Amino acid sequence: MNLDKDILENNNEILWDAIVIGSGIGGLVTATQLAAKGAKVLVLERYIIPGGSSGGFHREGYTFDVGASMIFGFGEKGYTNLLTRALSEVGEECETIPDPVQLAYHLPNGKEVVVSRNFDQFISNLTTLFPHEELGIKAFYETCWKVFKCLDSMPLLSIEDPMYLAKVFIKAPLACLGLARWLPFNVGDIARRYIKDQELLNFIDIECFCWSVMPAERTPMINAGMVFSDRHAGGINYPKGGVGIIAEKLVRGLKTNGGEIAYRSRVTKIIMKDKKAVGVKLANGKEFYARTIVSNATRWDTFGGEGVKEPLIGEEDTPNTEIKWRNRYQPSPSFLSIHLGVKQTCIPKGSHCHHLILNEWKEMETEQGVAFISIPTLLDKSLAPEDRHIVHAFTPSSLSEWKGLDPSSYAKKKELDGNLLISKIQGVFPQLKDNIVHKEIGTPRSHRRFLGRHNGSYGPIPRMRLPGLLPMPFNSTAIEGLYCVGDSCFPGQGLNAVAFSGFACAHKIGAKLGINPWALPD
């Protein structure tokens, strides 16, 4: 079947069980989980490839990752290896390459910390820098392990479903009670129980910021327990062929299980009838109807707020719960990103794949204050031509910094800020600038345009200090028939986190459709 032609032209003949708006990883996991259970699923994607910020693109022999290439969720054991599970359940798998180091930190005052895959080695590296805090370091990270072990001992599905919760509690009562204990806490609450040295607390802040774009006092402990421990348990494993291969394989699994995806299909409106979501309308005027609608768009693009002109749900249908959510959360910054093809000789042999650069602690949350570097060709040489490396660097940047620029001013700012980012990279790789053979620069405007995300944002961050994950919304909304998935839902940002939201969303919808299996996952 030629989907883009036949499905889009014959939409009036089809009633879907679920329509998913957007093909980010959260949306694709929702779609594939439902399809694997027998539901009739259609994914509508505005762009020409799947994956959103977890997609990939090709230029002159290079395969670039759109977003970060530091991937959790590809381990072999346990319930927290969500990408492994999601692919397996639709008959797919990714060959992965283990990364011996999650991240090399280049910090103020010349301090450097290497986060080894080996937990004991990481603790040794950190206590060498802060020997007077050895007991506190061990106590804090061992607490993270306690959280992780609770997560990894229970099937991670929807915690909105009372029947599921009852079955999980029967299977793992201590893990459930242990996990509930940590729900109200943020990382900063726990770190300050054990650690007094302010510079070490600053390090815990940047440990959180590198994936949550928030300091420790605003990062939920549940999320940190997963990230800070899974990097040593399941490890960081890069998918051979690039991060975009994950979405491609999920799409293939979706189709194998009877689902469909249509590209170049921008949804402009969720159709309401008697206060219930019943369908969607595309930019070309075509309409599709389903028993359930799933939005993988941001919460702002779905319900409005923050200056969104045309949200999917009109103001007259926006629930009060979503207005309360806007008061609690705001969009995080977007990114200035640079994709480079460089001569292999400028990256020394034995270099680490992932780096974070912060020159001053006070710059952590400022415009372009932190620089992230990924060199995925250190793990997978097939991504670049012979004798070349890929260097992908990015730094937080707000859309407000790029508004109101005419084409000439915009081009000049791109080049200037791109060069400033390159100069930061040269602090780690001094020969870089003279060995660049390919360069592309993306801005928050690029992220907004190609990824369809409000302000190009990475996701929501709290406006204020909130009690852990307790205020984070789940997949259900106050509108009957409408669900949300992705980083605007529990448990938040990150590839493994949005995969969790996909599992949870599919389980909740599956319960409504009566297609969930009775037994918990093995």
Strand content bin: 15-25%
Large-scale geometry = globular
Largest sheet: 7 strands, mixed
Return residue spans where pLDDT drops below 50 for at least 5 consecutive residues.
Answer: none
**Can you give the mean pLDDT?**
91
Return the structural class.
alpha/beta
What's the assembly state of these chains? single chain
Annotation, overall tally of beta strands: 20
* Approximate helicity band: 25-40%
Counted by DSSP, the helix tally is 16
Distance between termini? Answer: 35 Å
Structural Rg = 22 Å
Give an account of the 3D structure.
Strand 6 and strand 7 form a beta hairpin. The two termini are 35 Å apart. The mean pLDDT is 91. It contains 16 helices and 20 strands. Strands 1, 2, 9, 10, 11, 12 and 20 form a seven-stranded mixed beta sheet that branches. It is globular, with a radius of gyration of 22 Å. The chain has 522 residues and is α/β, with parallel strands linked by helices. Helix 2 packs parallel to helix 11 and helix 5 packs antiparallel against helix 8. The protein has helices spanning 3-9, 25-36, 82-88, 119-129, 134-152, 162-171, 173-182, 187-194, 198-212, 221-230, 244-256, 299-303, 320-328, 407-425, 444-451, 495-513, and strands at 15-21, 41-44, 56-59, 62-65, 96-99, 101-106, 112-116, 236-239, 260-262, 267-273, 276-282, 287-295, 329-331, 334-343, 354-358, 370-374, 388-397, 436-442, 460-462, 482-484.
How do the strands and helices of this protein lay out in sequence?
Layout lengths: L2 H7 L5 E7 L3 H12 L4 E4 L11 E4 L2 E4 L16 H7 L7 E4 L1 E6 L5 E5 L2 H11 L4 H19 L9 H10 L1 H10 L4 H8 L3 H15 L8 H10 L5 E4 L4 H13 L3 E3 L4 E7 L2 E7 L4 E9 L3 H5 L16 H9 E3 L2 E10 L10 E5 L11 E5 L13 E10 L9 H19 L10 E7 L1 H8 L8 E3 L19 E3 L10 H19 L9
Parallel strand pairs: 1-2, 1-12, 2-9, 6-15, 12-20
Antiparallel strand pairs: 3-4, 5-8, 6-7, 10-11, 11-12, 13-19, 14-17, 14-18, 15-16, 16-17
Helix pairs in contact: 2-11, 2-16, 5-7, 5-8, 5-10, 6-7, 8-9
